[in-house]
Amino acid sequence: MPNRPVQEHHGDKPTTDHDYFERMSRVILASGLNWRTLEKKWPGIKQAFANFEIERVARFEEPEIEALMANPDVIRNLPKIRAIVANAAEFQAIAREHGSFAHYLAELRRSGGEAGLRDAVSKRFAFLGKGNTVMYLFSVGEDLPEATKEWEAHHDV
Questions:
Q1: Cα separation, 89 vs 78, whole angstroms
Q2: The predicted structure's pLDDT at residue 11
Q3: Could you give the C-alpha distances from 43 to 40, 48, 50, 145, 151, in angstroms and in order?
Q4: Measured between alpha carbons, how far is 52 from 2 in angstroms, rounded to an integer?
Q5: CATH number for the domain that contains residue 123
Q6: Number of separate domains in the chain
């Protein structure tokens, strides 16, 4: 179903907001790339993005963004980099609003089911269209039977 960097985490629910954020960033960076490229670069990417520490990434400004764009160890895609920084700020807001990202996802699912969960996450976070949102939710162990049915119907499985 999804590409390998996401599959390797399926069913393995993150335990911290940091883990949720890192996986979201991974899905964003993987978009449109060969998974081997991302795997090869991942150690350098993690280091360049302050190990995906939400508080640090949320404070990235133009000098840090320019440094990322100049760093050959990083996927140098400005919209993706800006999305990751913006999403770190969203993670901070969610922690204030809901206590944790896991609570946020649970509240979305309770109030809107799978479709509501997918739509809300897609709308709130940068660079998470419908497909990337499904990949992300799948990577963090969310059960997505409707998305699985849609994918299977589209791919004649």
A1: 17
A2: 53
A3: 8, 9, 11, 33, 31
A4: 22
A5: 1.10.340.30
A6: 1
